[in-house]
Amino acid sequence: MRAARIVLVVVGVLVIAFGAYVLVTTVRPNRIWGLATWLLGAVILHDAILSPFVVGVGLLLRRTGRTLRAWALVVVQAVVVLGSVLALVVLPEIAAKAHGQKNPTVLPFDYGARLLLVEGVLLLVVVAVLVVAARRPARVRASTG
User: Fold this and answer.
1) What are phi and psi of 118, to 5 degrees?
2) What is the pTM of this model?
3) What is the pLDDT of residues 117-135, one digit of tens each?
4) How many alpha carbons fall within 13 Å on the CB side of residue 110?
5) What phi-psi label fits residue 38: left (phi over 0), alpha (psi between -120 and 50 degrees) or beta?
6) Other beta carbons within 10 Å of 129
């Protein structure tokens, strides 16, 4: 086990060193701070907003797990994660479009409306799953004895 840990640490250090080399050789020095800011913002957004939200929804769903079936909880949790990640991916496009761009063909769509549409569809999926799960009674296991 100790040898495996040493190998993993060495491989990790080599991958980080290779990434740093590629960063320094391919990114202009005046752009590195912008990249670092973006990466820090992504970590903060994930750790301060997305993760606590998903954990909170998961805890609420676990409390209702006594009355809802397991498959419904799984679907709702998957939709929450999917919707959150989708929002994190699309929000930079919305911000970039709001700032304007030199080439209008780079961001040609109304990403805010499309995000709302997809999030609305996901909400409808959650409502439909909860309605179906609430109407279908849980199967009672026959006791053998």
Assistant:
1) -65, -40
2) 0.62
3) 999 999 999 999 988 888 8
4) 4
5) alpha
6) 20
In a domain, residue 51? The reply is yes
Give the structural domain span for 67. 2-135
Residues in the chain where the model's pLDDT stays below 50:
140-141
How many CA atoms, within 13 angstroms, populate the side-chain half-sphere of residue 133? 19
Structurally, how many domains does the chain consist of? 1
Q: Describe the crossing of helices 70-99 and 51-64 by its angle, rounded to 10 degrees.
A: 160
Asked if residue 88 belongs to a domain, the reply is yes
Categorise residue 142: left if φ over 0, alpha if ψ from -120 to 50, beta otherwise: beta
Is 36 within the bounds of a domain?
A: yes
Q: What is the pLDDT of residues 91-114, one digit of tens each?
A: 888 888 888 777 777 788 888 899
144 within a domain of the structure (yes/no): no
